Amino acid sequence: MKKGAVDRSEGGGEEAAAAEEEEEEWASSGKLYEAYNELHGLAQEFETPFEAPAVLVVGHQTDGKSALVEALMGFQFNHVGGGTKTRRPITLHMKYNPTCELPWCRLVSDADPAVAHFKSLAEIQAYIEAENMRLESDPCQFSEKEIIIKIEYKYCPNLTMIDTPGLIIPAPGRKNRILQGQARAVEALVRAKMQHKEFIILCLEDCSDWSNATTRRAVMQIDPELSRTVIVSTKLDTKIPQFSRSSDVEVFLKPPVCMLDGCLLGDSPFFTSVPSGRVGPGHEAVYRSNEEFKKAISLRELEDVASLEEKLGRSLSKEERSRIGVSSLRLFLEELLQKRYLESVPLIIPLLEKEFRSTTRKLSDVNKELSNLDEVKLKEKGRAFHDSLLTKLSLLLKGTVVAPPDKFGETLQDERTSGGTFIGTDGLQFPHKMMPNAGMRLYGGAQYHRAMAEFRLVVGGVKCPPITREEIVNACGVEDIHDGTNYSRTACVIAVAKARDTFEPFLHQLGFRLLYILKRLLPISVYLLQKDGEYLSSHEVFLRRVEIAFNNFAEVTERACRDKCMEDLVSTTRYVTWSLHNKNRAGLRQFLDSFSGTEHSSNGNSTCLGGLQESSFGSNDNKHERLKTDLKPNHGTQGVDSNSCSPLVETRLVDLLDSTLWNRRLAPSSERIVFALVHQIFHGIKEHFLVSTELKFNCFLLMPVVDKLPALLREDLESAFEDDLDNIFDITQLRHSLGQCKRDLEIELKRIQRLKEKFREINQQLNSHQIWPKRISTVKPRC
Asked: Which PANTHER family does the protein's record reference (predicted)?
């Protein structure tokens, strides 16, 4: 007779049948847990889109998080104490195995997740401590990559638990910036883990007042209704003595809905205590074995129940008793997770089928890539990619909605942040809200047009900078043949200097902004190529060369265009041509007429001086037309004697020469004339600058992308093909990487196929009622 067999003829038939049924149930359940553990490992290794149910432990530092995990496991393995003792999430695939008298642990390799090495508890603890020390000196401080440990033990529950780093509440102030940065990193890591909908969140709270939501604050940001959250109040043995009245204990054990709202899993919180002390042979150890540690946990539960009953003055109800102690929490989590496992089995199979088809397709593509690694086919692929890229670039400039604006579009504020702003000499920016389409997320040709419209609006609103009397006097200088003053030259000197200093920065800002917009076309085009399946994903060297060629073309073209605009600005501000700079002569004449009216009150005098002004500031009129005008009778001055006007005109001419040529004392009249001329010249330069700059950027920056870029890229491509085809496509490295990718996909395909068969078998057994948990309690959330 085999060891452990039962003789049914000796009255042990019923016991033997029960034992056999329990053994079959344990074996069948073991298949279920093993399949889900492998599924979880597959999801972690290959980033597959499915997740196995698991318990995610979340709490602050010193909440007793790692100690509670050890108590649930039935043995100690981690470094427990104050401060940050967990810097990488630790995934524990626990499996009940009554034949394992000691914990049988395997550590999954970081290099090859398919390999798990047998490790002792001391070796696992040393590995975790070494990882913590490594990350403590690392700039990131924490890592999202999980430490995966598979454990079989006679005291282990059938659970998958993930122990996360403890949340931190740092003190304010600049001196605590390092700790504040660590707190943000930990919270981001924990939040990312809580995003998985299949995870049950075990939320640990170390408080005696449920109004204080320390850990719940972080948990409810992801699970606001607490519909997949189990709340545990740790360190119950330290809280019981704090209550002086039984009513306080009643509220603590059964908090009202107003304090603990939401659809809480398990209807109410759990309360646990873990005895202090470590297991080991040393003199500092409290327990010599894990058996003693487990007995201490059970004894602690009994003491907590007795203390609560003493405080309440009554016995705990069955429902209250089911919420006290590590064993009650362990039973609840095991049944809850087992229920989730069974519910998820029919849903996992279609996901595995889909992933199997996706992996098969990827493997087929890799095999096709390997078969196409010859010169002729690579050249054809390169040329096809070249044509497709140019098509996408042209499409983006003409306008399209294929690329999502929320991903690739930019508002005007975003564009200014990355591409620079239009800022004049006064240092002020044009309010972005006053620009049309400022809040819209644009790209391509629409973004180019908006930037050019902003340039026109900003530069068009620029006014002539203020002119000081010192600038006027300094601009007068001394002529090479006389020491008189020439206020027309003075006005020209001031105007061109002001215009050059004002408009040159705008030219550089426009070039930088439009170059930024053009460079953004490439990543958007790549997205469109990927979407249409025309992207060469495995040829990084080739793609990098195309990117460099495009960016170089954009930079060289922008620089050449800006140089052309700069030449135009230099010529416009170097020599004043009155037909170009004095566009608004009527406005200037009106100003001078009003000026002469203030100086001379009589109509006759005004008329005579007006004629003088007509001859002085209208010098660039057509002489023939002016002569015909002079020969015509002036009907407006018939009542004025020409003989009497002539001496007056000569007198005024002498006065004008005295104030503008022979006298260096800057009179108000001379100052006003200079101001008028400077503003007039500045306005003419601005109009010419606006028109010519926009035209040149359209002709010499935008249009070359359409008519010159194709030829340049094709020339660069053919040159690369002729010079070194092997390096441009990096055929040797590509063949090696594709081979490695093929091997990985084949391994993944085999694992998915094996999992498919396991879950199909489990599903068939479930349908035939061969697997069903012995104790499945209906776990209802409190709503």
From this structure: DYNAMIN (PTHR11566), DYNAMIN-LIKE PROTEIN ARC5 (PTHR11566:SF78)
Q: Which two tokens stand for residue 561?
A: 């265009």
User: What is residue 409's predicted lDDT score, i.e. its pLDDT?
Assistant: 93
What is d(CA 776, CA 339) in angstroms, rounded to the nearest whole number? 7
Separation of alpha carbons 5 and 383, rounded Å: 75
User: pLDDT value at position 775?
Assistant: 43
Segment 617-622 long-range contacts (CB within 8 Å, at least 24 positions apart): 617/588, 617/589, 617/592, 618/585, 618/589, 620/578, 620/579, 620/582
What is the rounded CA–CA span in Å between residue 450 and residue 399?
Answer: 13
What is the C-alpha separation between 229 and 237, in angstroms, rounded? 23
Q: What are 703's two structure tokens? A: 């249009």
How does 593-615 read in b/e, with b if 16+ C-beta sit within 10 Å?
eebbeeebeeeebbbbbbbbbbe
Q: Encoding tokens for residue 6?
A: 């039962």
pLDDT of residue 502: 93
Contact 338, 773 (CB under 8 A): yes
Residue 409 near residue 443, CB atoms below 8 Å:
yes
Q: Please report the pLDDT score of residue 772 as a whole number.
A: 47
The pLDDT, as a whole number, for residue 33 is 59
Q: Is the pTM of this model over 0.70?
A: no
Name the stretches of the chain with pLDDT < 50.
1-11, 26, 46, 595, 597-642, 770-783
Is the CB of residue 416 less than 8 Å from the CB of residue 432? yes
In which residue are the tokens 């809905």 written? 257
- Measured CA to CA, the distance from residue 345 to residue 137 in angstroms comes to 43
What is the pLDDT, as a whole number, of residue 622? 44
Q: Residue 201: what pLDDT?
A: 93
| CB 348 within 8 Å of CB 763 | no
Q: What is the DSSP code string of 514-578?
A: HHHHHHTHHHHHHHHHHHTT---TT-HHHHHHHHHHHHHHHHHHHHHHHHHHHHHHHHHTTS--H
The total of other beta-carbon atoms located within 10 Å of residue 22's CB is 12
Q: What is the largest CA-CA distance in the chain?
A: 157
pLDDT for the residue numbered 647: 61
